[in-house]
Amino acid sequence: MTAAIALFVFGAITTGLALELPLGTLRAPGSGLFPFALGLLLMALAAGHGVHLYLARPKPGPQETASPPTVVPKRDGTTQRVVLFMGVVALATALLETLGYALASFLLMLALLQVLGVRKWHVAGAVALTSAVVCHFVFVVWLKIPLPSGWLEF
C-alpha cells in the first residue's frame, strides 16, 4: 500500500509541475501536455493498485473479531525499489541541464534497469545506450525539439 501511495503522490507532483508549463491542445501540444497526461495516468494506476490491495486484504473471520490481527509487513524490497526509482528520476531531472539530455537519459535508464533488477551490466548498458540514441534521434533530429545539450554539446 505504501508503494501505491508514494506513486500517487509522485503522479500528483508531476501533474502539478506540468500545469506550470503550457499544455496547448491535442492538435498543437505544448511542452506540459505529455508530463500532465503521464502524471494523471500514474495517479490513476496507483489509485487502482491501492484499491486492489485494499479489496484483497484478508477478511477477519467470526472468531477473529475480538482481537485485531497482527499485521507483519512483507520485507520483499518493493517499497525500497519504488523509493530508489523515484530518487533516480529526481536526480536525473536535477542533472538534466548540466549533463544534457543524451547523457542524463543514458544514466537514467542504466540506473533504472539496475533498480528493476537487470544485473548484467552489458545488457543494461546496451539497452540504456540504445534508448538514449533512439530518443535523441527521434526528438532532436526528427522532431527538431531542442533538448538540453549539457557540457557534451550532443
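Next protein, fold it too.
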Amino acid sequence: MATKIGTWLMAAGALVAFVGLCFLPAAFGSGADKTMLGAGTVVIATGILLIAAGVYVKARVLGTEAPPVSASPNIKRGRSKPGCDQCGQDEPVIQCRVHQIHLCAACLSKHYDFRSCAYVPSTRRTVIPKTSSAAYSQTASN
C-alpha cells in the first residue's frame, strides 16, 4: 500500500513540477512579469518536494521489508581453539590488517601481496585452561 502511495506522490510531484515549468514562458516572454518567475519557482520546488516525499516513502517501505543481515558463514565465533582463518588448522603467526584475517605460515605464502597488504604479528594465543592459568600466574610471580 505504501509503495503505491509513494508512486502516486512521485507522479503528482512530476505533474506539479511540469505546471511550474509552464509558468516560465510567462516570466521570460515579451510582456515579462517577474512575479510569475517567483510563482513558477515555488510551484517547481513544491513538485520536487512531492517527488522527494514519494522516494522517501518507498525507501522506508524497502527498509522495513529487507531481511536482517547475518554474519558471514565463514566466521566462526566462540571457538575454543583459535586457528588460521583460512585453513583453521595451524596457529596464526601474522594478521593481515587490510583483510582482517589471521594467517598461519602456510597460508601466508598464498596470501602475500606487498602492494596492498599490511601485516602485523597475530595477537591470537592458544587457550590456557583455567586450572593451569592459576598455576601459571603463581609461578610467574616467583
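About the second fold: The first strand starts at residue 94 and ends at 96.
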